[in-house]
Amino acid sequence: MIEYRSVGKTYDDGSPAVDDFSLVIPSHSTTVLVGSSGCGKTTLLRMVNRMVDPTHGQVLIDDVDIATRGPVELRRSIGYVMQQAGLLPHRRIVDNVATPLRLAGVPRREARERAMDALAKVGLGADLADKYPRQLSGGQQQRAGVARGLVADPNILLMDEPFGAVDPIVRADLQRQLQTLQHELGKTILFVTHDIEEAFLLGDQVVILRKGGVVAQAGSPAEILAAPADDFVRSFVGLDKGRRRLRIAELDGQRVVVDEHGRPAGVLDPTLDRT
Amino acid sequence: MSVFSEAFDWLSTSTNWHGPDGVPHRVLEHLGYTALTVVIASAIAIPLGLWIGHTGRLRGLAIAVTGALRALPTLGLLTLVVLWRGIGLTPPIAALVVLAIPPLLAGAYAGVESVDRRTVDAARGIGMTEWQVLTRVEVPLSLSLLLGGLRSAVLQVVATATVAAYIGLGGLGRYLLDGIAVRDYPQMLGGSLVVVVLALLLDGAFALLQRLSPT
Fold first, then answer.
1. Were A203 and a residue from A32, A167, A192, B193 both cysteine, which residue would form a disulfide, CB within 3.0 to 4.6 Å?
2. Does B135 touch chain A (CB under 8 A)?
3. C-alpha A251, offset from chain centre
4. Strand A205-210 to strand A188-193: parallel, antiparallel, or no bridges (unpaired)?
5. Do A82 and B124 lie within an 8 Å CB cutoff?
6. What CA–CA distance (Å, rounded) separates A76 from B183?
7. Domain of life of the organism in this record (chain B) (predicted)?
8. Where exactly are the structural domains of chain A?
9. What is the ipTM metric for this complex?
10. Nearest C-alpha in A relative to B131
């Protein structure tokens, strides 16, 4: 469990990134912080591994204030996946993935074996292991980044817009893969994105942020859609544009789901009604 | 043109290639001064430059100081150190070290600064200590600029180490000083040509090294 207790961050130049933020992130589930740029979501994420220290308030992991833990040791216990993958350009993919293990003192051979396992887990073939990051596509680099985040089997995985820089098709693929992995591994994932679709797709808990890290609404995707807290949330999740307001229309005896403007969004399938 | 042909005559005279005043011995002395200078200057400038690049501190000061150092005339500095410490190996080496520090320092801090900040951030984020970030990420990735600094320092020193002869030491400067004393222009030109060839050879070696370096 990760807990933010009234944390705030004011940068050296006096600009406040986060004013007063509190949140509990339950274990073994995915929490997504979503908001426009400048809402402080990345700052909040980086507080968990002390890449940013809050100017006030506390962040607790399993009831321990992380300010009492050394940043290096803390970071080694947490998986971190960032935008653009953040791979080291002078190291081969397998060595990049093995880096967290090597830092933890795992012998070279074993680290390499476990890195190969992690690569397989994220769907990267062994033939890519000895390549350098620049020889991989953006999507492959991102997979390697996820493999590196998972390789040391941390309880917590921080993901900072990990799929933001790849094309939509690859992104959908990576999202599916993450869902599968999470189903299997049950990590405590804190995920940051500006894409509400991604947030609803991946998040068990979704936290919509306004500027300054103010929580506009937190809840499951269904809760947020069913009862948006205010106009900001309504507009952020797209309820005001009619895209999400669906109704049923009859078309040649078939029941079709259409949006406010009558554009078809899908069909009603009675065989799915069992749930 | 006759001076050139006389210089080539001087260079092809076998007695000029033997003994303590012969070209090979002078080249070795010259390279010895260069190596000693560059080692000392590196020991000072590279750690300092890496620290400046890594922390971003004192950068403005470093630029100002290296700019000032570059402007110092080596011969004047040499004279100053001689007046202070007397004749010996110290004055020329000290003067040459001052010459070598700016390019080494600039190569080191510019090299570290050239490393993508996101890469450094990632290295820190996965749990590297500051030392590991420096030695395993920043230094390997700045190797080519570091080598560039070293290359420029070596060339400047090798071209300027002739000043050692000015205070009675050896090296290729002997031919210039001894030649000028008796107006032996072929010897002076021959000696200069050896310095030029030596500098070109070293430059070629560094060019090769930089091409082989991974970044």
1. A32
2. no
3. 39
4. unpaired
5. no
6. 71
7. Bacteria
8. 2-244, 245-275
9. 0.86
10. A72
